[in-house]
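Dear colleague,

Following up on Tuesday's group meeting, I ran the structure prediction for the two-component complex that the binding team flagged. I've pasted the input sequences exactly as they went in, so you can double-check that nothing got truncated or mislabelled along the way. The structure tokens for the whole assembly follow below. Feel free to forward this to whoever is handling the docking comparison.

Inputs:
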Amino acid sequence: MCKQSPIWQIVFGVLPVFLAVLIAAMLVIAVDRDPVEVVTNIWEGAFRNTKSFAGVLNFWIPLTLVCVGLTVTFRSGLWNIGIEGQILIGAMFASWGALYIQLPEALAPLQIAIEIALGILGGMLWAGIAGALKVWLGVHEIFGGMALNSIASVWGIYLISGPWYPEGGSAQQSAPFSKVALLPGISDDWPVSLLALVLTVMALIIVPLILNRTRWGLQLKATGKNQRSALLLGVPINTVAMSSFLVCGGLAGIAGAYRTLFTYGSFRPLASGGIGFLGLLVVLLASTRTLWIPVITFLFAAILSGSTRLRVAMQLDASLAQVLQSTLVLLFLLVGGLRQRFEARSATPVEPEAAQPPVQTRAGGEVIAP
Amino acid sequence: MNEELLNTLSRIVANATPLVIASLGETITERAGVINLSLNGSIVMAAMVGFAAALVSDNLIVGMIAAMVAGAVIALIIALASIELRQDQVAVGFVLTLLAADLAQFLGQDYTRIPGPQVPNWPVPVLDQIPIIGPIFFDHNILVYFSYALAIGIWFWLFRTRPGMAHRAVGERPEAAFARGTNVHRLRYLYTTIGGALVGLAGAAYSLHFKPGWSTPPSMQGDGWIALVIVIFGGWHPFRVVLGAYLFAALRAVSSDIQKNGLIVLGQTIEFNFVLLNALPWLLLIVTLVLVSTGTIERLLQIMPRPLQKRMRSVLRSDSPKALGTRFEVD
């Protein structure tokens, strides 16, 4: 009785995707363009050849790292909106390494290791500030995080307009890094960093294992489900919250280091480019199904990378990709709610647990206020 | 009083107006127990819609109404998702923030950087002749005057009328309100929508008055988050919310003034990179939240003389509506 028939499961799974695509198509028609042409362009932009496919992976790597990090903070019931800033500060610290540490070419691997370590440190620092504000000073992580994002961005703009202002360049980015400082690509046809790819896959495997198999993972889950009972059961909830911030910040720092050391090859104040917010959307979409994360991030990365063609080919604003993605997540949440209503009506009395939203937020409907 | 200072103060009042309207709208929503976290996106969306509608129809009223509808629809989605579909208000609000901003950018791509209609200045007769107060408060446009009326109106509604009491009860103790025969869900729909419409009007205030025109990326980016914090700083009280908005606007005015003219302290010109000043509002935001949440204000109250304590408490304390962000189930 309680389980729905498979047909309904498929209907509820496909409905948000169908509606989101329909809405996006209507938007494209509304601005007098052909939706089919948009799809062809995005497809071409993403999978035309190995280089464009590498472009997709270039989005997939940082996005996936960010998402893996965010599963950790969501598990402990925290909304790490400050992730954008954490990516940017990671990029900034890695850039500092690239600009000011000059090891000889023979020691290139060491140089890169230092830069990535700096990136991790930067991300952890910024996440640590958000965590400290949350844990010790009671500042809600959404507002603290948002403020830290903006401060990080001001800091980035300050650097390229002042101390890192390139000789004779524009105040858009720092001077390009030396070749030794950059992450190497696999080949000319495959401009993707193997090291970053390996790191991402490792994070995808190791972090869920830690979350599901260790005591720390269990403590995170307990804190996320019900902070008060976790405290009563002896879980050090402050340490747990702080550590989940730090882990997420570290992963965001790697993502930032990748963006700056590979994608751009110089420091830009927009190094995060909305990837952190997109990651939050992905994790909302996946909710507890962490296995889906690499799949969703791949899809989103393909749309994102493919849509960069739209401006040139069709004079369309590339924000269409983000509109499609956030519409999809919104509809997914709404249809998820519909589904619960449907289940509640067709089934025998539901357990209170089943009525909880799929999104993991702090138990007891935590109030956004100090 | 010198001319320049009066001008600056008058500009602060004008620049604060969109923030005032948005945070008052959010105050109405949150007083009913619903969080509309989509403010940042709603404002951008409403600014675009309001500008485009006013431009196409060549009518400012049409533009403002269109902006209010845009804000109200977004707010309605949050109420619907929370009340009917049992979804988390924060999650839906966050997604809508991003969606609305991106949608505004996509749909508004043909309207960027073109001149459009502007709300005209209209000094209030008689009142603008009052020295000092006149030029600061009564030499503006209709939106600014509306924001004054709005603050007083909301205060009167919330604290001096019976339906206003029900409004607060729905945000504080929905169970008790329900037991008294109040339709909790209907009121939440109502106040969320009204609050959203005001946020929409704030968006129109940007594109039709404060920073005329529409551009991508929009120039009001980030103000929605500031408005959300102003509501907390204001302790969900309309007058303090207005004060908070003016404070933020004043800080901005000072920092943009320094960026333009340089900083002179005691006759010495102080040199530093003024870009960093843009971080000031955000630092103030963090400091504000720390002060509100660590009980610094409570401690401050305790060292005050007793007769002063009671009076200051109602002015300074900042308690959120108890049921803020929670769902209410009838069963």
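The CA atoms of residues 16 and 246 of chain B lie 6 Å apart.

Cheers,
M.
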